């Protein structure tokens, strides 16, 4: 028998399928696959032995929607998330400029986290100009759909003078250039290495990476450099679709012959914008639409254009990950799937008409949802969509309607931590808050099942991805709030990816 990883005395947590015994069992992983699960197994002489000592074993956790490079870089950026108006931000930037050496020597001051939907006034370039001195300043909104730049940064990026922020496509188009300004290449990779290590410490064994850079080229370089502790499925965007088609890559194909951990992801297509930028496309106008250029939000493509893109990706063997936050965008996205026979997911599905759930289920699509967004979007929803708040993050309705549900973070929009996503899906509020639309809560077991990339209870033949927890994630709880607290605070004792120990605290 090939050398293997041997997990001794673990208690199995039921995920999708029941467990055969509540007594501790031994788990043997060989060549990245679970080979045996039974009590009383004996380790081989060359086995790596992990003594679970009665801890609870689950399949490895996944984050189905991450912007990995941006998440890694954001943690080193100026935090402007607490701002309630433009003046709050400019005070923070003025303090950083005063503390920064001058004159400017390259790069830029970068910040992250502002959310303008509830601000009494909208930000302007001239406000940043007044406090930024010699430094280019680039600030990303917390939903990553808006960029607030000063004039020096606009000029640096080749953007004509203006006094308003960049939104949606015009903001996304400059992301590669901003990534180059964010840090030197080796510094960025150091940040990514740290973010991957932190993800493993949270029980994460895999991500779908929605970074806008060409991940099919970047991630093999990272794996060669030893940043290989996670399974990664990098997506492609429309901007690199021709390149991916030319190379013949299809969803699920290995990006390196030497490993099964790195495979091609889907084609990501935007259908609309976001709630906080108020560009999510809706069937009815926003409640506060008086001053909006697009009172019902903004469709990125018309129906024919979207069908053409979906058809091209599908013909090339790519699954489709279609971003749709507003209910009109979800309707348009489902129409594109219906017209083309494409397979894949609706990314976000934040606001949905209940009658569209049956369409999604009939198409066999996954709803890839980020429950922790509801923690930030609750107040914004009550301002922008108070008449349709009952259809936001309709997790219970989608599950009951037969839709396959998978969870993620959209990091850096929320933290890359499946424990937080599961807790938000169960309680639908911060600790101590009353739940928001508790009828749309799901159970801890359902949240866990939506966080393991559809892997069931650990059994022979499963991927060799195992997480050992200090507590039972499905333990008794009197309330959803109590159950969510358990999920949020789960202690991760070990993370094992394809039989390789990537995190260990025991």
Question: Describe it for me?
Answer:
- Helix 1 crosses helix 7, helix 2 (86-99) packs parallel to helix 3 (125-132) and helix 10 (303-315) crosses helix 11.
- The chain starts with a strand and ends with a strand.
- It contains 17 helices and 22 strands.
- The chain is α/β, with parallel strands linked by helices and 506 residues long.
- Among the domains are: 1-60 and 457-506, Urease, subunit C, domain 1 (Roll), CATH 2.30.40.10; 77-182, Diaminopimelate Epimerase, Chain A, domain 1 (Roll), CATH 3.10.310.
Evaluate the radius of gyration.
23 Å
**Uncertain ranges:** none
Helical stretch count? 17
User: CATH H-level name of the domain at 1-60 and 457-506... which superfamily?
Assistant: Urease, subunit C, domain 1
Largest sheet: 8 strands, mixed
Structural class based on helices, strands and sheet pairing: alpha/beta
**C-alpha geometry:** globular
The CATH architecture of the domain at 1-60 and 457-506: Roll
Task: Determine the CATH topology of the domain at 1-60 and 457-506.
Answer: Urease, subunit C, domain 1
State mean pLDDT (0 to 100 scale): 95
Measured by DSSP, the beta-strand proportion falls in: 15-25%
What CATH first level of the domain at 1-60 and 457-506 would be assigned?
Mainly Beta
The percent of residues in helical segments reads 25-40%
Number of strands: 22
Q: End-to-end distance, in Å? A: 27 Å
């Amino acid at each position: 028998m090939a050398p293997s990883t041997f997990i001794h005395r673990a208690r199995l947590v039921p995920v999708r399928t029941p467990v055969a015994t509540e007594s501790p069992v031994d788990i043997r992983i060989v060549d990245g696959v679970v080979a045996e699960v039974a009590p009383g197994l004996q380790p081989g002489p060359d086995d790596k032995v992990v003594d679970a000592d009665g801890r609870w074993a689950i399949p490895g956790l996944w984050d189905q929607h991450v912007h990995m490079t941006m998440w890694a870089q954001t943690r080193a950026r100026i935090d402007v998330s607490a701002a309630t108006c433009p003046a709050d931000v400019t005070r923070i930037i003025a303090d950083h400029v005063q503390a920064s050496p001058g004159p400017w020597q390259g790069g830029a001051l970068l910040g992250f986290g502002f959310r303008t939907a509830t601000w009494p006034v909208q930000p302007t370039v001239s406000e940043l100009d007044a406090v930024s001195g010699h430094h280019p300043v680039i600030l990303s909104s917390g939903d990553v759909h808006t960029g607030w730049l000063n004039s020096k940064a606009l000029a640096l990026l080749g953007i004509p003078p203006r006094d308003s922020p960049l939104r949606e496509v015009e903001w996304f188009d400059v992301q590669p250039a901003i990534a180059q300004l964010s840090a030197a290449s080796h510094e960025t990779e150091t940040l990514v290495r740290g973010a991957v290590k932190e993800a493993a410490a949270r029980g994460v064994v895999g991500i779908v990476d929605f970074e806008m850079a060409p991940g099919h080229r970047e991630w093999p370089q990272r794996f060669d450099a030893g940043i290989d502790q996670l399974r990664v499925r990098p997506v492609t965007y429309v901007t690199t679709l021709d390149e991916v088609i030319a190379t013949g890559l299809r969803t699920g194909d290995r990006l390196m012959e030497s490993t099964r951990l790195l495979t091609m992801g889907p084609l990501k297509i935007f259908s609309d914008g976001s709630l906080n930028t108020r560009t999510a496309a809706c069937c009815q106008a926003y409640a506060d639409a008086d001053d909006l250029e697009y009172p019902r939000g903004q469709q990125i493509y018309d129906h024919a254009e979207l069908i053409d893109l979906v058809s091209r990706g599908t013909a090339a063997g790519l699954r489709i990950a279609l971003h749709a936050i507003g209910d009109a965008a979800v309707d348009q996205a489902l129409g594109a799937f219906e017209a083309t026979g494409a397979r894949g997911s609706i990314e976000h599905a934040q606001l949905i008409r209940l009658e569209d759930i049956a369409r999604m289920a009939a198409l066999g699509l996954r709803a890839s949802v980020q429950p922790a967004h509801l923690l930030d979007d609750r107040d914004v929803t009550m301002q922008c969509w108070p008449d349709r708040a009952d259809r936001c993050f309709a997790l219970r309705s989608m599950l009951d309607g037969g839709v396959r549900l998978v969870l993620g973070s959209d990091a850096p929009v929320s933290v890359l931590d499946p424990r937080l996503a599961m807790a938000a899906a169960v309680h639908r509020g911060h600790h101590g808050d009353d739940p928001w639309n508790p009828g749309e809560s799901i159970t801890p077991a359902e949240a866990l099942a939506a966080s393991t990339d559809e892997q069931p209870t650990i059994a022979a033949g499963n991927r060799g991805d195992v997480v050992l927890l200090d507590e039972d994630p499905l333990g008794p709880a009197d309330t959803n709030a109590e159950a969510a607290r358990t999920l949020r605070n789960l202690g991760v004792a070990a993370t094992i990816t394809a039989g390789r120990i990537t995190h260990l605290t025991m």
